[in-house]
Amino acid sequence: MSQPEVSVVIPVYNEEEVLDALFSRLYTALDELGRGYEVIFVDDGSRDRSVAMLREQFQRRPDVTRVVLLQANAGQHAAIIAGFAQARGQRVVTLDSDLQNPPEEIGRLLEQMDAGHDYVGSIRRKRNDALWRHVGSRLMNGLRERITHIRMTDQGCMLRAYDAAIIRAILDSREVTTFIPALAYVFAHNPTEITVEHEERAAGESKYSLYKLIRLNFDLVTSFSLAPLQMFSLVGMGVAGASFLFVVYLALRRLIIGPEVQGVFTLFGIAFFIMGLILAGIGLLGEYLGRLYLQARERPRYLVRAVLDQQGEKPAAKKKTARKKTASRKSTSAKPAGGEAAPSGNATDSGSDDA
Q1: CA–CA dist 104, 237 (Å, integer)
Q2: Buried b (16+ CB within 10 A) or exposed e, 54-70
Q3: CB 221 within 8 A of CB 288
Q4: Is 260 exposed, middle or buried, given 0-12, 13-18 or 19+ CB atoms closer than 10 A?
Q5: Fewer CB atoms inside 10 A, N or C side of the chain?
Q6: pLDDT tens across 245-271, in order?
């Protein structure tokens, strides 16, 4: 397989119902582009017939198809990074396997890269999702932009194109929890966005539950900004100041008027409010500390079981890498091919559906 111009990375997780339609539309759209390309499917620990169908597609088009099989479910973004590690194209396009983002739009993203942009995001013209997803996504887009100053009109759309230099920078990042579109925006020199079509899910069901969406947005906000901690510090100082003034007021009132038994419930209300703020602050601090803990463990983000390409099925080889721990001590650890430092249990964003 000669070096392609474009690599298309597609994470797959239990998508047997939609894969045939994806194969038909994807390869037709890419063949019409007239560019050298490769398609990299990353199976994220599927338990249905997805792996067998990916093998069959590889056998049909081995010249432009590669399949990465992960050992276990690692999550959508970890699976995409596993695909990035195998990509050889000068431009890399990510696409969900559920066909909500039409593969026919890939050509429009590449046109923007031909115009000089190194990162092309996408905005869904009309979302065909449940109302709560649509409203929640808009709220989180606005909150994320205010907190992180990362401008992405539609953070949930994974149809995006990246220059190879940005892919290398993402692979060099050793962050445990990351959000690829936002991280790419940080590294991009000349980013842009275009409007693309959005369709209903072709088949199957969404792999993103409400809880997973909340976790994903927690990762996005806390991975790119300290603003939540700073905001909470300001709120804490404000509440402390107000509480001090209120205590002074109650002391003066007691000296001038006398004790007021009826105000005890007001004090209870204020006390519960302050305790709620304290608990929320501890939880927020715990989010940041938890990420430090996950980072310190340095577990591989994913494990590659095998890679299918024209050289045949290759089991993942283990490499030994030495890392300097202190100025006078080094430690050596085994690391599977393609694996990156991150927790193996970080699979809260598994699936290939739009957030």
Answers
A1: 53
A2: bbebbeeeeebbbbbbb
A3: no
A4: exposed
A5: N
A6: 777 777 787 777 766 666 666 677 677
Tokens of 143: 């909150």
The overall pTM is greater than 0.90: no
CA–CA dist 66, 89 (Å, integer) = 13
- Of 180, 2, 219, residue with least CA distance to 93: 180
**Buried b or exposed e, range 101-139, using 16+ CB within 10 angstroms:** bbbebbebbbebbeeebbbbbbebeebebeeebeebbee
Tokens of 188: 């991009």
Q: Which domains does the chain have, with CATH numbers?
A: 1-355 (3.90.550.10)
pLDDT digits (tens, 9 = 90+) for 113-157: 999 999 999 988 876 556 656 666 666 666 666 666 677 777 778
Beta bridge partners of 69: 43, 306
Q: Which two tokens stand for residue 122?
A: 């996408």
Place 165 in a pLDDT band, splitting at 50, 70 and 90. very high
Taking the C-alpha atoms of residue 29 and residue 5, their distance in angstroms, rounded to an integer, is 15
Question: Rounded to whole angstroms, how far apart are CA atoms 123 and 173?
Answer: 26
Q: Which residues make Cβ contacts (< 8 Å) with residue 277, sequence separation at least 6?
A: 235, 236, 239
